[in-house]
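Subject: for your reference before the review

Hello V.,

The reviewers asked for a structural picture of the protein, and I figured it would be easier to keep everything in one thread rather than splitting it across files. Below is the amino acid sequence we used in the manuscript, unchanged from the supplementary table.
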Amino acid sequence: MAQPPYATIIILLVSAAMAFTSSLINSHFTPRGHREKLKALQRQIAALKREKDDNRKKARSTDDKKLLKKVRKQERQLLQLQSQMASLSLKQMRVLPITMTLFLIVWLLLTGNILGAKLFESPFVGTGPVAYLPWISGAMELNLFLWYLLCSFLFGSLFSRIFGLTGATE
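And here is what came back from the structure prediction:
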């Protein structure tokens, strides 16, 4: 069971289920208005950064004191917006204990280990790789941890976008 393709597919499915569950929990506990405000702040910060950088370049090239004063004001404004965004982002962290507990339970079931303590023998942990990736110099072997991590990044990004949890700006 610890050999590809069984372990590869099972870990892929477990990773997808975990990312889906985590995104579902996050979307349930983070109100839509909160997420929209966070995205609006990110857009505002990006626009202000661009404007500040343009003004700074212009002020340095023309030695304009008035424009340099405006740049300093924009920097203070930027810090305020970033502080608001950090505060909002911190509120999203309240679901971390729920998702972390869920992850530790699933990890225990996959590996038989939790926090370094071996509790039982898992059929997914073996001496060989559980997945292979094509690489420049041949196939790259991935153990359970690396394969789960790779799948987790993929499905985490996918489900975050589907549930509207990403803070990516357009």
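For the response letter, the relevant points are probably these. The first helix runs from residue 6 to 29. DSSP finds five helices and four strands in the chain.

Happy to draft the paragraph if you're swamped.

O.
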